[in-house]
Amino acid sequence: MKICIAHFRVGLTDGVSLQIDERATILKQLGHEVSLIADNNSPGADLAIPFFDYKNNLRIKEIQKAAFGTNQRESSDLKKKVTVIVRDIEAEIEEFWRYRQFTLLFVHNIFSLPVCLPATIAVYNFLLKHPEIKTVGIHHDFYWDPPRINKYLTKNEYIKKVLKKYFPPKLDNINHTVLSTWEQKKLKNLQDIEAEVITDTFDFSRNPWKPDESNKDFLKDANITDGQLVFLIASRVRPRKGIEIGIDFTAWVNRLLKPKGNRRAVLVLPNDYFEDEKGYIKLLKEKAEGLKVEIRWLQDLVGSEEQKEKGMKKYSLWDCYAYADTILYPSLWEGFGNQFLEAVFAKKPIITLEYPVFKTDVKPKGFEVINISDKVALDSNGLAKVSQESLKKATVMLLKLLDNKREYKRFVNKNFRIGKSKFHTKVQLKKYLIVESERFIKSNGILRIISPLLLSGKLIASGIMIQSAYGLAESIIAEVPAEGLTNYELFTLTVKHLPDENKIRYVTLELVKEFLTSPKSKNPLFIFLGGLSGKSTLANLVVQQLGIEQPIAFDNEKYHIAKPGESKPFLWKATYESAHGYVKTVEAMYPHLLWMMGRNLFDYKRYKKWCYFWEGIYLSSQILRRIHENYPNIYYLSVFNLPKFSDIKRQYLLRWQNELGLEQLKKRKNIIDQYLKNVKAIRSNITKGMEPIASFVIESSVLEERLTIFYAILYQRLKDIADKEISGWVEKVTKRPELIKSYKKFLTE
């Protein structure tokens, strides 16, 4: 599927940019084509629109000042200026769409923050002309939030109408989401718009942030000595982020540390600030100087991961977390809490203020934090302040925690477990990107348990190219009437949309699946996927696309090294001892595999699943032959994922280098070399004695090629079963899909 994500900026270190990175990554992993629309200063933007840079573009600044500034202009003059730019932006998006042809659009904050009025109106106009483009408005922040409400007051009647119509708009092809229940209720009350709550998330499965070769000079470059405590505020520098409270807290820590020696805390601020916040920055610097708090302003050193990779910045924001002792999160207001989740992932203590959304949507999950206060006032300079008693109490709690390693570990690990279970991208965001967009599509079409993602899996298995499958699935579902279809009708509709060469494969797959789950079938189909390097990824896609229930993997942790402190990376017990050790382990596992076979066959008598899918390195050709000898009447398909050894070696080395770093890889060279030597021998062992008909080898290291080859092999096996068990039916149903009803009746006779 072709998907576009639009925001004012991308590829940077603000919370929205980071969330967009997460969404784009997940979508690409699912095989979708993703493009980005943002301003001309955004790394990685596919369409760079200068007008989106609302902080620096002079024409946009003039419009915003006229709309919300102290000298607001007459409606007619302002409307003309807005309309001219709207046409330019709309034309750029239209031309980009003609080139990219995206069918799903994610819009971040453009419909909720009136920071660039022409951009919002232009995107709205574009969607009005293209009702076929399904859109999800993702509203991280609103102009009526407490920190912003005074900023967007206006007397201009034209602007009042714009705010009412476009922020956010009501269009049939826009689905709205917000980050919290607080915002959900507010949106319903103010605009009578229903929205779904989809919180910020974080990828808790990514590699942990830690000191490594790429960031080893971070403390030196940041002018931080080994004896200093590093307090990190990772958010952008804005008044609503409460940076001044972080300064107060750091001052209290230094005050209580002073009697204990020379150790002091330093406050690290790596994120950016805009030109119009220089007055606020000046007040922060004066406050820090008065309280003798050292601040490290690292905007020139630190950027996003992409900026670091491109050499634009020396360090990423994640490097700051790696060296931080504590994360300060003194925000007065947040739409949710992106940096909070980052701190949870980093396994650092968190010092926070209890802002409204924290109370309603974050705190109830059970996180442990050191809370300074939920009562904030303003001083004579307009800076936020809390009571000295609250600051002192929080300081004492932190210092006790830092001195108690056992309690520290319990504290951060508990938060990590909660974060991973409640806010993990792979669980929450991935589900949203699939299910919610499909549910929206379903509301325009089929009302049964079907979706473009599920249908596209069957189409790929039928030989449709991966890049085309999702779009074809959408086209099929678009023809389904609002009242829905029966399974027979959906089958007939799908067959009619397929080219002839794919039609027969689709019919074969569906008819054999029906046969294997019918009373006529006495034996199930077993699909075995063995081999090395990439078989699990291939297996996951096959299981998802074919809707296979309860697949079994024989590479699980009980067959891996489990010794604490084991230095050998990613080594199975059998493989690092010797190549012969692999054969011994396979032999030892044979009784277990035979027992599992018996369980699956017993299960088949009761539940009639269409296939049983086994995957693992221990599924050698020798073992599979012995299973075949014990159960000769079962239908088998044995496939071995075995890229050339040079490709296997390259993949392993890249994986270890990413996990361990180049330095550690060099130190373990002897272990690695021995391991790879054994893997080469194992690869040879797996291919010995292959059955010429029942077993197949896939040597490609390209995932798309492997998937295509696998489904071609599967089709041939299913065709053999069809020719033997349901002779003539595939040909008849391919010519006349409506005969599927007669076929179902035949299976029950």
TrEMBL record:
<keyword id="KW-0808">Transferase</keyword>
<dbReference type="GO" id="GO:0016757">
    <property type="term" value="F:glycosyltransferase activity"/>
</dbReference>
<protein>
    <recommendedName>
        <fullName>Glycosyl transferase family 1 domain-containing protein</fullName>
    </recommendedName>
</protein>
<dbReference type="Pfam" id="PF00534">
    <property type="entry name" value="Glycos_transf_1"/>
</dbReference>
<dbReference type="GO" id="GO:0009103">
    <property type="term" value="P:lipopolysaccharide biosynthetic process"/>
</dbReference>
<feature type="domain" description="Glycosyl transferase family 1">
    <location>
        <begin position="220"/>
        <end position="360"/>
    </location>
</feature>
<dbReference type="InterPro" id="IPR001296">
    <property type="entry name" value="Glyco_trans_1"/>
</dbReference>
